[in-house]
Design brief:
The chain is of the alpha+beta class and about 675 residues long. It contains 16 helices and 21 strands. Keywords: Cell membrane, Kinase, Membrane, Phosphoprotein, Transferase, Transmembrane, Transmembrane helix. GO terms for molecular function: phosphorelay sensor kinase activity.
């Protein structure tokens, strides 16, 4: 009892020692330290990304403040113009200057694209440049200025027609060809014709006391000075690490209308579009996007904020961002250095720990590996451990001895098994050969018995039927002669009797021909297949005339065949008639003759193909069997069987290919006449 307990405890104690030694050696270096390092790297990476997002958010604030400053400045400048003494001087009845000249001078000075004065009725009193058509006067900004409020400014979207009413140059500058952009929302548009305008209006008083509004605007489409100024303010020199690049963009909806992002060297990415994800978040939900985004052709740390027009509708976006790649590379380089240092330290210390532990558990692993090899079928595996005085060494030597005995027993069993398999294969081969012979002999015996029975029955039937047929035919002729001219009254009935007597005679003849083909064999001679086919067609012409069947011929055979002419005609006529019956609604009958080689012998192939109803595989396998027919009310089922007998007698073959609904093709192959 105590011995059994001791044996069961030893493996458990051995496994425990090996596990503890490995844990002591590897757990601190390969588990605890990597976990701590992973947590530290994760926290550092999150802080790094948060710093980048914080920076781009600050950049967006600067860009936003600049745009707000532009809006405010435009409104203040228009208000200053409306309150200036010169403005009121040119409005006076005895004015010495021109209002248009003042507007033109002021527009150029403050950098506007258009400036005009309109009254409350929508009349344009003066403009710079000269307006092409009457512009809209119902903008919220204009209405606010006319109502006496402080100068109103904002961003408005002008249609191309509205821009053209102000200046054709502005309409042309607003037009941008859309560039196909990956990840953008699909669109059917090819151009962007609308314009984004910094729109401002300020109230002005006319000499008659009426209210008017000074209206001015700057088109932002392709306004590169505007966007480059933003980029210069946000991303000054040395504000980004080497290799990074700051960018700024103004969007009309999701189309870049002013940007310093390059599509490729020398061309800005005007007309490209923002990704669907950014569009949905900023324009769809009104959120500010602060995250990494794919911009045209690379990844950028990006910030997008929605732009709202004077109607309160989100109509575009303001974007700033900087290239992510330099920051990512710096981050990855740092990670690589940290990980490489950890790996180097681990590589230097772990082997020392393992060497101390291996002297204990390595012998056990060799024994375990040897047992595993034996279980996988390698009976020659051995521990090959040197003899030592410890317990593990003695177990290894004893295991090798036991494996030698097992390998010898296995070799003997394999030899006995191989010998038994050889004997079984020999007996099986003999049995299969005997079964094949028996099957062939049985088939031949059954066929011989059938033919013999058919021959006896046919001879008796022919004898018993031919005599009554002769009597019937003779009496029928006597009846005709007795009736004389009156026999014409039953002309149809007499004809039917003649046809049926002739049909009975043909059936008897076919039975005799099938049962005793040697008695009907005619003399053989050389024939060209084309002439035989030509002779067969008149014999079936009456059947072709009853249907809408087109006959196609392809006579390419240059060789002659050796066979009785009537027998070959009988075979071909039988195949042609079957093809005609297979096409009751019409079709195409194709007759081909061409040289063909079969089993190394030269010969001629004659094909009879139809486009009729076709046959299933089961029917094709039975059509050459005697008395098998698919014609329920006519036919004896001997036509194809007799045809096969006639062809085989001349050393030829007859085969059939068919598919239901696609027609059938019968091929007669005969050896070349020598």
């Amino acid at each position: 009892m105590s011995d059994a307990a001791g044996r069961s405890d030893e493996p458990v104690r051995g496994r425990s020692v090996r596990f503890r030694l490995l844990a002591i050696a590897l757990l601190p270096m390969l588990v605890i330290l990597p976990l701590l390092l992973g947590v530290a790297i994760y926290r550092w990476n999150a802080k790094f990304d948060a710093t980048l997002i914080s920076k781009v958010n600050g950049d967006l604030t600067i860009a936003h403040q600049y745009l707000a400053r532009i809006l405010e400045k435009t409104g203040v400048q228009l208000r200053a113009l409306g309150l200036s003494a010169r403005f009121h001087e040119v409005l006076a009845p005895d004015a010495r200057g021109s209002l248009r000249d003042l507007l033109d001078e002021t527009r150029k000075e403050i950098g506007l694209d258009f400036l005009y004065l309109t009254n409350g009725r929508g009349d344009i009193l003066a403009s710079s440049p000269p307006l092409q058509h009457q512009p809209r006067n119902d903008w919220p900004i204009i209405m606010s200025a006319l109502s006496g409020q402080v100068p109103a400014t904002g961003i408005d979207i002008f249609s191309n027609d509205e821009l053209a009413a102000i200046s054709p140059t502005l309409a042309e500058r607003a037009r941008l060809d859309l560039v196909p952009t990956p990840n953008a929302v699909p669109t059917d548009r090819s151009t962007e014709t609308r314009g984004m305008v910094v729109h401002a209006a300020s109230r002005a008083m006319l000499p008659d006391g009426g209210a008017a509004a000074l209206v001015g605007g700057t088109l932002l489409n392709q306004n590169l000075e505007f966007i480059d100024t933003i980029n210069g303010l946000v991303y000054r020199a040395a504000s980004l690490p080497e290799g990074s690049q700051g960018t700024a963009t103004l969007f009309l909806e999701d189309v870049r209308i002013s940007t310093n992002v390059r599509l490729f060297e020398g061309r800005r990415a005007l007309g490209t579009r923002v990704s669907a994800a950014v569009r949905s978040a900023v324009l769809g939900e009104g959120r500010t996007w602060l995250d990494s985004a794919f911009v045209v052709n690379d990844w950028y740390i990006s910030a997008y904020e929605p732009l709202v027009d004077s109607y309160g509708k989100r109509v575009g976006m303001l974007y700033v961002g900087f290239l992510e790649k330099p920051f990512s590379e710096a981050k990855y380089q740092t990670l690589v250095i940290v990980i490489a240092a950890f790996i180097a330290i681990t590589a230097a210390t772990v082997p020392i720990f393992l060497r101390w532990a291996s002297s204990i558990f390595m012998p056990l692993e060799r024994v375990t590996a040897t047992i595993g090899e034996v279980e996988r079928g390698n009976l020659s595996a051995r521990t090959k451990m040197p003899v030592s005085g410890d317990e593990i060494g003695r177990v290894a030597v004893h295991l090798d001895s036991l494996l030698d005995q097992i390998q010898e027993r296995d070799r003997q069993l394999r030899e006995w098994n191989e010998e038994l398999n050889v004997r079984v294969r020999e007996r099986t081969r003999d049995l299969e050969h005997a079964n094949l012979k028996l099957e062939t002999t049985t088939k031949q015996l059954i066929m011989s018995e059938k033919l013999a029975a058919i021959g006896e029955i046919t001879a008796g039937v022919a004898h018993e039927i031919n005599n009554p047929i002769a009597v019937m035919q003779g009496n029928l002729d006597v009846i005709r002669s007795v009736f004389g001219p009156d026999a014409d009254k039953a002309k149809v009935e007499f004809r039917l009797l003649d046809e049926q007597i002739h049909r009975i005679s043909q059936i008897v003849t076919k039975l005799l021909q099938f049962a005793r083909p040697e008695e009907y064999a005619g003399y053989v001679e050389r024939h060209a297949p084309a002439s035989i086919i030509s002779d067969c067609l008149p014999l079936v012409q009456h059947l072709l005339n009853k249907t809408d069947i087109a006959v196609l011929r392809d006579d390419r055979a240059s060789r002659l065949v050796l066979m009785n002419r009537n027998e070959l005609q009988q075979v071909l006529v039988n195949l042609i008639v079957n093809a005609i019956h297979a096409m009751p609604d019409g079709g195409t009958l194709t007759l081909r003759a061409f040289d063909a080689e079969r089993d190394g012998h030269q010969g001629v192939a004659i094909e009879v193909a139809d486009t009729g109803i076709g046959m299933s595989t089961e029917v094709v396998e039975k059509i050459f069997d005697p008395f098998y027919t698919t014609k329920r009310r006519q036919g004896t089922g001997l036509g194809l069987s007799i045809s096969q007998t006639l062809i085989k007698r001349q050393g030829g073959q007859i085969t059939a290919e068919s598919r239901v609904g696609s027609g059938s093709t019968f091929t007669v192959w005969l050896p070349e006449a020598t």
